[in-house]
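Task: encode each sequence below as structure tokens.

Item 1
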Amino acid sequence: MPENREVATEFESIPSEHFLKIYANSVLIEAGPWDFRLVFGETTRSGAKVITEQLVSIVMSPQHAKVFANILMGNVREYEKQVGEINIPVAPVEKLSPRSLA
């Protein structure tokens, strides 16, 4: 007998009691055969020393990472349509490795 499945038309997102909200200006991205790990942190300067305090790690499957990247870029494009182009300073970009974004 076939199941009678309703298609969801309403979605609700609620924070759990363990919900964590952080500010991050740095992300280290690690990729393995089974998952992607994004380690978010806050980078500050103390004299000549640059310190990144790692705050949270998010792990997702490669499939989820690809969908996430597409959705994020769609949001960036929409933001730029409404607000204007996001300019990225040249100096910090030149210092980035393929595995980290700060």
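Item 2
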Amino acid sequence: MKVDEETFSFGGIEMSVNLDCCKNPSESELSKIFEENLNPILQLIVGAHRGVKGTVKGSNGERLRNAILKVCVVVQTIKNTA
């Protein structure tokens, strides 16, 4: 239940990434595996921090400040910052 606890308490999700099919590679292989996977890992991190950007608007198009959004699949309440 660690993922649920993390998600509901702090709004984050813990994730494990396996870089190779070998669970415990030898020390001599680690550097090669790291180098082969560095760019994909960095792309994953950049994508994960992209987030949702935009403006919350009312039915007549006016910008709403301090709106509270409820996402149906997420139990957590989200407040906009602008």
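Check on item 2: The beta strands are 68-70, 77-79. The first strand starts at residue 68 and ends at 70.
End of task.
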